[in-house]
Amino acid sequence: SKQTAHHKHKTSMKVANYMTTEAAAEVALPSTSLGHIAKQLMEKNCSCIIIVEGKKPVGEKTRISVICMLR
Length: 71
Known about the structure:
By secondary structure, the protein is of the alpha+beta class.
């Protein structure tokens, strides 16, 4: 059916075809305070901060997770 063919097309799509590699991500160190992360999220108007050690991503903090932690 048309719907099945459409679903198969969507599930076979590769993220590499749609991802951005030129944009800089907002990053922070594991030692960064939660308050600073919250400020960074608001000032940069981004949805998440990637936590890095060296050049390796080791975690992330999203707006939602920060709001829940600060309650």
